[in-house]
Design a protein that fits this description.
The complex is a heterodimer of chains A (157) and B (558).
Chain A lengths: L2 E4 L12 E4 H6 L2 H7 L3 E5 L17 E6 L6 H12 L6 E5 L3 H10 L3 E4 L5 H7 L17 H4 L7
Parallel strand pairs in A: 2-3, 3-4, 4-5, 5-6
Antiparallel strand pairs in A: 1-6
Helix pairs in contact in A: 4-5
Chain B lengths: L5 H22 L5 H9 L3 E3 L4 E5 L5 E3 H14 L3 E4 L5 E3 L7 H10 L16 E2 L14 H11 L14 E4 L13 E7 L5 E7 L11 E8 L3 H15 L10 H8 L1 H15 L8 H9 L11 H17 L3 H8 E2 L6 E6 L10 E3 H13 L4 E4 L5 E7 L3 H10 L14 E2 L14 H10 L3 H7 L4 E4 L13 E8 L2 E8 L11 E2 L4 E2 L3 H15 L7 H8 L2 H11 L1
Parallel strand pairs in B: 6-7, 7-8, 16-17, 17-18
Antiparallel strand pairs in B: 1-2, 2-5, 3-14, 4-5, 4-13, 8-9, 9-10, 11-12, 12-15, 14-15, 18-19, 19-20, 19-21
Helix pairs in contact in B: 1-2, 1-4, 3-12, 5-9, 6-8, 7-8, 14-16, 16-18
The chains are: A alpha/beta (157), B alpha+beta (558).
Chain lengths: 157, 558
């Protein structure tokens, strides 16, 4: 099991009852079967998935996840932004796959609140990486206001 | 010019610390090559043919004297004592050691500079008109908008792993000296009927393997919405841009495959979801940033001053043969009466275009303080600009530059060519650019000849990535590899500016030995065929077509 941390860097245990389905599985499978089984469902997006396809169904999931097969593929960042901003997802949003400390700050900003670290990633280093930068210029999910709406900046004399 | 406040400083300082630690992990074997690569690239560090290359950001090409001196000092301490000013208004050091780069970045941070996002698949340094703020033909100073974009794009979390690099250019002049139509996003500032500011938005232009002029997807964007609209464009690109093939990953390919209409609809839908949100600019924020760019304390020039200035220049022309030519080519109109902008030519015999030594950087920094307000510009033509020279001081500036070989009177002429570093330095190049540039320059060394030929743009790229902008030069030269040998393809008819056009290939390529003569043949054909000395190359080409050039070229050399 990969180490799972939350936005505060706390180690959290994955809910055992959660059944993860990919978007494809969700669309293909008999969704009722999973509901009948009584277990909460988590939906996992792949980089090419369009979250708008399930925008109306989001409340049926206990958690959402976005997979990063490679950390260099940033499509999952826009999926997270759309889930949070455009489709109003308030529940847990996991980043899964090749999750490395050097990208955690950006992941946390766009809307992820659970990070399933790659097995070899150092836990303490990853915790501190969530706070890599003290200053954020632009608004995002973690802080929707740009810097200039949050603080009085000096300006030229 | 812009000055960091504590927030800007904190960001670059934090970045230095992060990169120091990442470099340490890489050198200790804790970070793999693949994992380190995007990190170092977004700090401007390439691994090159002979050594790493560090690309330092010069936001929209504006530098202070203090910063230019610091660049010289860095080049001396950690490199070979010189740097290369690039077509993206940045500075490249060609031989730093990887383990020194954290110290270099720390030295840069001390003078409010960095190498953030100068490479990698992210939003790059925003470029602009090198005469921004002093050009008589601009409707406003584009630099505050560039700075707003710089801050917005710096560490933008959602756009930190784009399909490919992303370049934004801003102009506020109808003459468009920033080539906005060949950028991923090109912005041209406009004034509405009530004096309100807006932008014309061009998307999907670019050079490289698939040269294309951008599509105008908005003819009027209210300036307050600038950041939101750019965000919407990048969101569509990040989600749907191709990632299966790096050669098809730029936004121009997405736009082409979707079609401009469908692409525009997708952007407008994303924009609609953002409209009115907290990212919308405020008058307060725009005014705050604009204050950094307010006009310096110019000395008012009355009628007497204008007459006196003219007398000084006339006397200098008498005393120094050469001064008048320099005045005609390297000195530019200024919006403030009594002032001029001066181009320091980095195109001279025996030196690669755009290169400057630490001593030369210091000289230009000093001149900018003595004859200006301590500000320097880098042009995408790979020259430096002193933006605020009193006209009466032009003879002194000329003398100082001439003594250091920086007064070649060739701005806008054939030998003011753009050339990438090419195969001598760059790992991507198929062929060398610098020796070809030098061989061509040597053929047009005679100033009478050069002036007779008149304004002519010649650009050289060492490979299809087109850093030398060969596609939009009247005469473009592209280095290609044929069975391990360097060959050069010639394109004619490219155009920069508001009616940008991509040049067309004239025929089979030339060997390194043949190419200087081939260029000379093209130039002599043009001069021989033009109807008057005022007919520019592209006008002649449009009138007579490619055939006379092709006949002259291939009858002679094949």
């Amino acid at each position: 099991m990969p180490k799972l941390i939350d936005r505060q860097g706390q180690l959290v245990s994955a809910p055992t009852a959660l059944t993860w389905l990919t978007l494809e599985q969700w669309q293909a499978a008999d969704a009722t079967a999973a509901r009948v089984a009584g277990t909460p469902i988590g939906l996992e997006f792949q980089p090419a998935d369009q979250p708008g396809l399930v925008a109306q169904d989001l409340l049926r999931f206990a958690a959402l996840a976005v997979r990063f097969p490679k950390f260099t593929d940033g499509r999952g960042l826009t999926i997270a932004q759309r889930l949070r901003h455009r489709y109003g997802w308030q529940g847990p949003l996991w980043a899964v796959g090749e999750i490395l400390r050097d990208q955690l700050f950006a992941y946390g900003r766009v809307g992820f609140d659970h990070f399933a670290l790659r097995d070899d990633e150092d836990l303490d280093a990853a915790r501190s990486a969530l706070h890599d930068y003290a200053v954020r210029y632009q608004g995002a999910w973690d802080e929707p206001r740009p810097l200039w709406r949050r603080v009085e900046r000096a300006g030229a004399l | 010019m812009y000055q960091y406040d504590e927030f800007d400083q904190r960001i670059v300082d934090d970045r230095v610390q992060r990169f120091r630690e990442q470099t340490r992990r890489f050198l200790a074997g804790e970070l793999s090559e693949d994992e380190f690569k995007p990190l170092r690239l977004q700090n401007g560090l390439y691994i090159q043919r002979h050594a790493p290359m560090l690309r330092i950001a010069i936001p929209y090409g504006t530098l202070s004297s203090q910063q230019l001196r610091a660049l010289g000092a860095i080049a001396e301490r950690w490199d070979e004592g010189w740097g290369h000013f690039s077509t993206r208004q940045n500075l490249q050091l060609n031989a730093p050691r990887l383990e020194d780069t954290p110290d270099i970045l720390e030295a840069l941070a001390k003078v409010q500079m960095h190498a953030i996002q100068t490479s990698g698949n992210c939003v790059r340094n925003v470029t602009s008109d090198h005469f921004a703020g002093v050009a008589p033909d601009e409707i406003l100073d584009p630099r505050p908008w560039c700075e707003l974009l710089r801050q917005w794009s710096t560490f933008h979390p959602e756009f930190s792993a784009l399909p490919r690099k992303f370049k934004i250019a801003v102009t506020a002049s109808a003459a468009d000296r920033a080539a906005v139509q060949v950028h991923d996003i090109g912005l041209r500032a406009l004034l509405g009927p009530g004096g309100e500011v807006g932008f014309e938005v061009w998307v999907g232009g670019g050079l490289g393997r698939t040269p294309v002029i951008g599509s105008r997807i908005r003819s009027w964007l209210p300036a307050m919405d600038l950041l939101l609209y750019v965000e919407a464009i990048l969101r569509v690109y990040n989600a749907d841009g191709r990632r299966d093939n790096p050669y098809k990953a730029r936004i121009k390919i997405l736009l082409r495959e979707m079609g401009a209409d469908a692409f525009t609809r997708a952007v407008e839908a994303e924009f609609a979801a953002l409209e009115g949100g907290p990212g919308r600019l405020t008058e307060h924020e725009i005014a705050r940033v604009a204050r950094y760019f307010k006009a310096p304390p110019y000395v008012h020039a009355d009628e007497h001053t204008v007459v006196a200035d003219a007398q000084i220049l006339a006397a200098a022309a008498q005393a120094h043969p050469g001064f008048e030519r320099w005045l005609s080519r390297n000195v530019h109109e200024h919006r403030q009466p009594g002032y001029a902008a001066v181009t320091v030519s980095l195109k001279r015999a025996g030196r690669p275009p755009g290169d400057a030594t630490a001593d030369e950087m210091r000289l230009v920094a000093d001149l900018a303080e003595q004859h200006g307000f301590g500000e320097i510009r880098v042009s995408h033509h790979q020259n430096l600009v002193l933006p605020d020279v009193r006209r009466s001081a032009l003879p002194d500036v000329y003398a100082a530059l001439k003594a250091s070989g920086l007064a070649t009177p060739n701005i806008g002429l054939l030998t003011d060519m753009i050339a990438c570093p090419g195969g001598d330095y760059c790992a991507l190049a198929n062929a060398r650019s610098i020796p070809v540039a030098e061989a061509i320059r040597a053929r047009f060394e005679d100033l009478d000849d050069l002036f007779d030929i008149g304004e002519l743009e010649l650009n050289i790229s060492g490979c299809i990535n087109s850093c030398g902008h060969h596609h939009i030069a009247q005469i473009g030269i592209l280095g290609v590899d044929k069975n391990g040998e360097e060959w050069y393809q010639v394109t004619l008819g490219g155009t920069q500016g508001p009616s940008a056009a991509i040049g067309k290939v004239i025929g089979p390529s030339f060997s390194a030995e043949e190419i200087p003569a081939a260029v000379e043949t093209v130039v002599r054909t043009y001069v021989g065929q033009r109807e008057s000395a005022h007919e520019r190359f592209n006008e002649t080409l449009a009138r007579i077509g490619q055939a006379p050039f092709r006949e002259a070229l291939y009858a002679e050399t094949h």
